[in-house]
Design goal:
This protein is mainly β. The protein is built from nine helices and 37 strands. Helix content is 9%, strand content 53%. The chain has a 22-stranded antiparallel β-barrel. A five-stranded mixed β-sheet has the order 1-6-7-4-5, with no helix packed on it. Strands 2-3 form a two-stranded antiparallel sheet.
Length: 809
């Protein structure tokens, strides 16, 4: 019997099954999705699901492996290719591999569907990810640069995203040094975002101590035409964006482009950024698919200086901070070298506006993937990504300048079959990635426009990771699936840091060279069980490990922010246990709860250095710490048109072994065991109540009220200073209608009031260092609040934003 005939027979069989089984399978499908919220299942598959190739079709959780016969809940695509269905309607290996980036079986996971943010402003990814439990957001150094933290993983870092691996459509956009930045992410481009929580290095490798994110672009068949959108409002914000997409024959592609501008609500925070995002897939043969991914982002932005806590209370939006000498109360300044090289001979204090601080960056990502089906059970994938980050960042007393090109290659095989009569999914793959760069740090001098003086330091860095991963999903019983995985990886860090000092009127140069050549080997096992108790309850248990090596630049920064030898840093590792339950009694109710307990060794913790230091942050190892918490998600459609959703996170994260040394003439030691890890908010909640009219003359009209609550948290290792918590209320009205026209398909309009009650709040607070008197007594919180600058950005005051999007055929 030919493969084509078997596939056709499987597709016909599933179509018949969908007609009779869809009403029963809807609740069943929801019970398989972890924290994911799915729309009600209909008998007929949506147009986009029927049209697009299976290689790019958005998948629900791969928990289909844990249900009898693994039948999908809705009718399958009409195409009978091997990429769509296999014998008996089982998911193909290609589909199973896609799920490893979207919803790995047994993992604690949430998928935020486009319907959650399609009718509201979406300036940055912070507007979207707050709907997932376990996720915390803080403002970074730039308009759309946000710190994304899963279970507190990135809350200790001063900028960017660490301890999380990020993908777009399965292509990695985390560079080999573990750094991700969200500047290139415009939420309007995406169909869904998958949030994978907990240590995940067995599947995703280095830096996945907190989990992973996968951003899924809108396939061309879903767009099926063109869309133009615009949104804008307070503080000069304006976003013009367009999307084009089609499926023509064996090719499917989508192109997104946006231009975003704004004045900012803090002085010296205007921005101008453009993003282009392309995804294309060509079905060359029934067994071969080629996918291309292109992303480019250009950013020009001005940046304010982070404040101390006292400065935040005095002047949170830094109004009137025009000059250093006559600046208003509460203005932050940076000490600049008035001769271009020597801060000792003459120091000039300037505000961010005076100095012209900002960022001018470009990020370009090019990825290609070839997938080949050997048969209906086995798929081989080869994937290559070139990722280049080109930066010029005069963000303080110095400017970071450099080009960071990286290469990432992976090859893997996945097979769906049977072992001893039990359904099995087996995955095995290898990978190699590398980043080599030479970057400069130069002094910023007075005069505005971020003029540059002499070289402060040069860092040559080389980061390489290579290893293998293996995973097995085995259906032990019709209701019980076991998952086991392991990853092994070698990381090579090489660096040479040359620091320059200048003395005398002529600036006599002295250089200090520090080198590092480190090799790390890490292994990460994982075990999980997924048990479907009945049609309403699903239980999850998981034990997994993660690891993250230091970044080369961490090895050359001392606690006072000067360049030096910090090459003793170790790999941070964590062992985590998850217990979770999902309850779906019907299509109107979905509740999920997960409790976790993670044990860290040599946790990498970052804190801010004094303003004016050559480097803005310092990283150290805390020998032992523990992270525990609870994640809750609820989705309740309690009346026709009404919907209540909530995402709550409780975190309790403490040092269990760490002695910190503070210096003031002599060295004084303080035991931090039992102290809370700074930067971690213990309670966070996002909840929404909304109504949408589905019939009558007001059909398409809706709105919601949303509450965001973030608890206060410590900013220092001594637990002497706290950043205040806050509650924000957002109000939204929206309208969507289908247009009966040969050229127009639909019209979306929305209006939102952000921070309705105009609360002043802390959007970002980097950790600060403790200080000590000459007598060895720690300075109290009131002293830290006045002296420890370089920490806080205020959040936006009340803002009004309106938007419109029109779809063309």
């Amino acid at each position: 019997m030919s493969r084509r005939y078997r596939a056709l027979r499987g597709a016909s069989y599933l179509a018949v099954q969908a007609v009779f089984a869809a009403p029963l399978s809807a609740a069943y499908a929801q019970s398989q999705t972890g924290d994911k919220v799915l729309p009600p299942v209909t008998i007929e598959a949506p147009k986009e699901a029927r049209a697009k190739p299976a290689a790019q079709r958005p998948r629900t959780r791969a928990a289909a492996a844990s249900r009898p016969n693994r039948r999908p809940a809705a009718a399958p695509a009409a195409s009978p290719s091997a990429a769509t269905v296999a014998d008996g309607g089982k998911l193909t290996p290609a589909a199973a591999r896609d799920s490893l980036n979207q919803a790995p079986l047994g993992q604690t996971e949430t998928t935020i569907d486009r319907s959650r943010f399609d009718e509201q402003p979406a300036f940055s990814i912070s507007d979207v990810l707050r709907d997932s439990p376990g996720v915390s957001i803080k403002q970074g150094n730039g308009p759309r640069d946000v710190g994304i933290s899963i279970r507190g993983s990135n809350a200790r870092n001063g900028f960017g995203i660490r301890n999380i691996v990020i993908f777009e459509d399965g292509f990695p956009v985390t560079q080999p040094d573990g750094l991700s930045r969200s500047d290139l992410i415009d939420p309007h481009a995406y169909a869904a975002i998958d949030v994978i929580r907990g240590p995940s290095s067995a599947l995703y490798g280095n830096y996945a101590t907190g989990g992973a994110l996968n951003f899924r672009s809108r396939p061309g068949g879903t767009v099926d035409g063109a869309e133009y959108g615009v949104e804008g409002g307070s503080f000069g914000y304006l976003n013009n964006y367009m999307t084009f997409g089609k499926k023509v024959g064996n090719f499917e592609g989508s192109l997104f482009a946006s231009d975003v501008r704004g004045d900012g609500f803090i002085q010296n925070s205007w921005f101008n950024t453009q993003t282009v995002n392309f995804l294309g897939t060509l079905q060359v043969t029934p067994d071969d698919r080629f996918t291309v991914k292109l992303i480019n982002n250009d950013l020009s932005a001005r940046l304010p200086i982070r404040l101390s806590l006292n400065q935040y209370y005095q002047n949170p939006f830094q109004q009137g901070c025009n000059t250093g000498a006559t600046a208003a109360t509460g203005c932050a300044t940076v000490p600049l070298s008035n001769n271009g090289f020597n801060k000792v001979a003459g120091t000039d204090l300037e505000t961010a506006l005076q100095a012209g601080l900002g960022r001018n960056d470009r990020r370009s990502v090019v990825g290609a993937r070839w997938e080949h089906d050997f048969d209906n059970q086995t798929t081989w994938r080869n994937q290559f990504v070139f990722d280049d980050r080109d930066i010029s960042q005069p963000t303080g007393a110095t400017s970071a300048i450099g080009d960071f090109p990286s290469f990432n290659y992976m090859s893997d095989v996945i097979r769906r079959g049977e072992i001893l009569g039990m359904d099995s999914t087996t995955y095995f793959g290898g990978f190699y990635n590398t980043l080599t760069a030479s970057s400069d740090t130069r002094n910023v001098i007075p005069g505005g426009y971020a003029a540059l003086g002499r070289l402060s330091s040069n860092l040559f860095s080389d980061t390489t990771n290579y290893g293998v991963r293996a995973r097995e999903e085995l259906k032990l019983l019709p209701s019980l699936t076991a998952i086991a995985g392991i990853g092994w990886e070698t990381t090579l860090l090489k660096g040479t840091n040359t620091a320059f000092t200048y003395t005398g009127a002529a600036g006599t140069t002295t250089s200090a060279i520090t080198t590092a050549d480190r090799q790390f080997q890490n292994t990460a096992p994982e075990l999980a069980l997924l048990y479907k108790l009945n049609s309403e309850w699903q239980l999850r248990a998981r034990a997994a490990t993660g690891y993250g090596t230091p970044q080369v630049s961490n090895l050359f920064v001392l606690s006072d922010g000067t360049s030096g030898n910090n090459t003793q840093l170790k790999t941070q590792t964590n062992l985590g246990y998850d217990l979770g339950a999902d309850w779906t009694p019907n299509n109107a109710v979905k509740l999920s709860a997960t409790a976790f307990y993670e044990f860290f060794r040599n946790e990498l913790v970052t804190q801010a250095t004094p303003v004016g230091a050559p480097n803005s942050s310092f990283t150290f190892n805390a020998p032992r710490s523990e992270h525990r918490g609870v994640e809750l998600a609820a989705d309740w459609r309690f009346q026709p048109g009404w919907r209540f959703t909530a995402a709550y996170t409780y975190l309790d994260e403490v040092y269990t072994e760490y002695v910190e040394n503070l210096t003031n003439g002599a060295v004084f030691s303080f035991n931090r065991a039992g102290n809370k890890i700074p930067g971690i908010s213990p309670n966070e909640l996002t909840t929404r109540v909304g109504y949408d009219e589905f019939s009558g003359p007001l059909r398409g009209l809706g709105g919601f009220v949303e509450l965001q609550w973030k608890d206060s948290f410590f900013m220092d290792n001594g637990n002497l200073l706290k950043a205040p918590g806050y509650e924000l209320v957002n109000l939204n009205l929206h309208y969507k209608t289908d247009l009966v026209s040969d050229y127009l398909k639909s019209l979306n309009m929305y209006f939102e009031v952000r921070n309705l009650f105009d609360r002043t709040y802390v959007a970002s607070a980097n950790n600060v260092g403790n200080t000590v008197t000459a007598a060895g007594v720690q300075n109290p919180g009131v002293i830290l609040a006045a002296t420890q600058t370089g920490s806080i950005y205020a959040g936006s005051p009340r803002a009004f934003i309106a938007g419109m999007r029109i779809a063309f055929r």
